[in-house]
Amino acid sequence: MTNSKNSSNNSSESNELYAIAETSGQQFWFEVDRYYDIDRLNAKEKDKITLEKVLLLKDKESITIGKPYVKDAKIELEVVSHKRDKKILVYKMRPKKKTRRKMGHRQELTRVMVKSIKIDKSAPKSSSKKEETVKKETKPKS
Fold it and tell me: pLDDT at position 8, please?
């Protein structure tokens, strides 16, 4: 029993830094040193890409929520490869009319690796009205 408890604590400690960002019309939960498949980007392999549409950023001390985006927050990605998703079949049929149409679609994807998640704290906090920072509550020791 104690092994499973320790493993769950280790997994929560490894998720101390993450961000939710918007790219290619979707929102993704990004963590450092993980790869993600997103819609095809116009970039070559080993290129660096920076996402600036960060909706939420969580680090060890606090959670920063943007309205709609967190100011000065960036996620740096590296393009690993370009690939295609598995085929989806689309079948259209009109009953009693002998009309049938079968089509397939394969989405083109880009596999990216998250290199870093950071926020530039050099900007003064008083000028940013569109952010909200929530401090983590600590439980009192008894």
Answer: 44
**Could you tell me the CA-to-CA distances from 47 to 38, 44, 53, 136 in Å, in that order?**
15, 6, 19, 36
Q: What are the Cα distances from residue 96, in Å, to 49, 89, 92, 100, 101?
A: 52, 22, 13, 10, 14
Give this prediction's pTM.
0.70
- Measure the CA–CA gap between 43 and 56, rounded to whole angstroms: 25
**Which distant-in-sequence residues (6+ apart) come within 8 Å of 115 by Cβ?**
32, 48, 76, 77, 78
Which residues neighbour 113 within 8 Å (Cβ) at sequence distance 6 or greater? 33, 34, 35, 77, 78, 80
pLDDT of residue 119: 85
Distance CA 18, CA 15 (A): 7
The DSSP secondary structure of 61-115, one letter per residue, reads SEEEEESSS-TTEEEEEEEEEEEEPPPEEEEEEETTTTEEEEEEE--EEEEEEEE
- Sites in the chain below the pLDDT cut of 70: 1-15, 122-139, 142
